[in-house]
Specification:
about 500 residues; mainly alpha; 5 domains; 24 helices; 5 strands; elongated
Length: about 500
């Protein structure tokens, strides 16, 4: 085996790396016999592979120090001879510098024969000379590079672009400055948790990404990626199960109608007799479950390293659509909710003070919403039955008041209550259209109003930005900008005096 190592070492000193060699060159050289293997391989690849074979064969042969030729050098000795770093020397091993693995007590060390050193010097002398002339950055140069890079990044340059510009100014390589910036915490471009939260909040308030980037002193592209990453992160907090669900038929029902915000109006709507239809209930809840499962798969498949805004948008739109459908599944059951509360109360809800009535109805509606959110029509049973049980359980914990006053009835008719349709699914907290958007729609031109209604599912199902781009015949980035402009217009209209 030692003879095979010596033959390979001798052969690589004579190898012409500019031309191809026979595929059987390794076997023929190591064994000393002519072995024919069809094909040819590049000379440079043959050289690198031969060095790896020499190292492996010497390790297998358990080469001892006394079996080495005179004048061999260790790693540190050769690095000192060439005036290069040890790391550079190990890089040369992958470029054709052969070494023998030699036993040294319980470990093994690399030794470079004089022939291997001479051969590499003849082949890569220019590279060695270039590495020898390399000088490390001084402390003043490092400080100057970091300060200059920070200035450039504050002006909106990416870390890579800043490193390239600084490298050009200092006469250094791009990689040298890039690695320097990575090691310097003060020059880091990493977003803090506070910056991420602020960027997401600004996005939710329909600010333009360019304006957010300027305010954060960041690059616009990096700002978009950070916002998309934060949107994905809050979707993952929902912990949805990415299961496979067959797509059922799409229910054709009006969507997005708001709930009453006056307590008396809500009670009046709940008293309106409207029995839930079994077939409609099953169709709506089945499609809501399908949309939730599809969004969960989209979230699960999204990768932060290669995140596409379209994927996040698709998941958010599916979840908003599912919430809209669950609202319509619950709407016919408002009477069930009220009857369950009044059955436990032993009288009409109007007999309670307004604050107490509001609290009881909100608790009952929250129980109904939680039931609708968890309901799986594939397991059988009626949603209406599950809602009745859930609301009755909540209502049973409440205590009846001692007496009713006329003032209580008067305050009841004037009291406000939150819109229950905004609290059916947990993700509505951040996906639901702001209240001012609904309130300001009347003041918008027809095209802007139609855009927002299609986007947020106000009358029809919600649409992704890609679907809106196709529907309105404009590019996706432009439709996103128009949605933001229209949303800001509703806010301005809502704050104007009537």
């Amino acid at each position: 085996m030692l003879r095979a190592v010596e033959r390979l070492e001798d052969a690589i000193t004579k190898l012409d790396t500019k031309n191809d060699v026979l595929a059987g060159w390794f076997l023929s050289t190591a064994s000393g016999y002519d072995m024919h293997v069809p094909g040819r391989i590049p000379g440079e690849i043959a050289l690198v592979d031969a060095c790896a074979i020499i190292e492996a064969l010497s390790a297998t042969a358990d080469t001892q120090p006394d079996e080495l030729p005179d004048g061999c050098l260790g790693v540190d000795q050769l690095a000192q001879k060439w005036n290069v770093a040890v790391r550079t020397l190990h890089r040369y091993r992958a470029q054709g510098l052969s070494a023998r693995s030699v036993r040294s007590g319980r470990t093994r060390k690399l030794q470079f024969t004089p022939a291997a050193v001479a051969a590499f010097e003849a082949w890569r002398g220019d590279a060695i000379k270039s590495a020898t002339s390399f000088t490390r950055l001084s402390a003043s140069e490092r400080e100057r590079a970091n300060e200059r890079a920070r200035e450039l990044m504050i002006r909106g340059q990416t870390a890579s672009t800043a490193a390239r510009l600084v490298a050009s100014e200092l006469g250094r390589s791009h990689e040298t400055i890039r690695q320097l910036l990575r090691r310097d915490p003060s020059a880091s471009t990493a977003w803090s948790d506070r910056e991420r939260r602020l960027a997401l909040r600004a996005h939710d308030r329909f600010l333009e990404p360019v304006a957010i980037a300027e305010r954060m002193r960041r690059n616009t592209g990096a700002t978009r990626r950070t916002i998309d990453g934060q949107r994905l992160a809050r979707l993952r907090v929902l912990d949805l199960e990415p299961m496979m669900v067959e797509e059922p038929s799409i229910p054709r029902v009006p969507l997005g109608a708001p709930g009453p915000t006056l307590l008396a109006d809500l009670v009046a709507e709940m008293r309106d007799p409207h029995a839930p239809d079994r077939a409609s209930e099953r169709q709506i809840t089945a499609y809501a479950r399908f949309l939730t499962a599809r969004a969960a798969r989209t979230i699960d498949e999204a990768r932060a390293a290669n995140l596409r805004a379209e994927s996040v948008d698709a998941a958010e739109t599916d979840l908003l659509w599912a919430a809209r459908l669950r609202v319509e599944a619950l709407r016919p059951m408002l009477g069930i909710v009220l009857r369950s509360v009044e059955a436990r109360l032993g009288g009409e809800i109007e007999s309670l003070p307004a604050r107490m009535a509001t609290t009881r109805l909100q608790l009952a509606l929250a129980a109904a919403a939680e039931t609708a959110h968890r309901y799986d029509p594939a397991r059988g049973g009626r949603l209406s039955a599950a809602v009745t049980v859930a609301v009755d359980r909540v209502a049973s914990d409440a205590h009846a008041p001692d007496k009713t006053t006329t003032a209580a009835r008067r305050s009841f008719s004037q009291s406000h209550i939150d819109d229950w349709t905004r609290r059916v699914s947990p993700w509505q907290v951040f996906l639901e259209a702001p209240r001012y958007l609904r309130a300001g729609l009347h003041a918008l031109p027809d095209n802007q109003r139609a855009l927002l209604e299609a986007r947020y599912g106000l009358g029809e199902r919600p649409h992704t930005l890609a679907e809106l781009a196709d529907q309105f015949g404009i590019h996706r980035p432009w439709v996103a900008r128009r949605v933001r402009e229209a949303a800001r217009a509703t806010r301005a209209a809502d704050t104007m005096p009537q």
